[in-house]
Amino acid sequence: MPVRKKASRKKAARGRATGGFVGRDASPVLDKYPPKDPSLSPAGPPRPAPAAPKAAEPVPPPPAASGAAPAPTPAAPLITLERPFDVDEFASLLGETSIRVTVPRENLADVLARATEFMGFGIYVYAISVRPAPSELLKAFVVELQRVDYSSARGEWVPFTDKGTSDSPFGPSGTRT
Hints:
By secondary structure, the chain is an alpha+beta fold. The chain has helices spanning 2-15, 28-32, 87-93, 108-119, and strands at residues 98-104, 125-132, 140-151, 156-159. A hairpin with a 4-residue loop joins strand 3 (140-151) and strand 4. The chain starts with a helix and ends in an 18-residue tail after the last strand.
């Protein structure tokens, strides 16, 4: 039976007037559901009728209670221009000679951990100083990192001095000693 249906479709397609798809049989969907008259389709979603302007009524002030709490302070703005502190962004600064950042109290441990982990490679060593930021409640701290080198002659850590860059793996002098 499936063979007969295919044969009957081809015969029906050949018998139709032109206007079908080029290079293949016409769609049977168009026979069952012909296109609708465009004049019957809606123009779009209904538009709300414009509201009549109302007269502005004055809002009565709230009653003032004697001995009540002070008036509420204005609300904080919804959009702030300050970006929150990002520990990953701080970690991208590591490798510089001098770094100074203000760190919120809740991120201080992460910042110090990242700095000491970075120094674990032994290439960059920092002298780290932490002091409270100028605020009342110790909500932030100023963290300063200053790159240092070990001086075997003095036996202590001294501030890093940039000696330039070199293509030699033995340093700027180009010799092993």
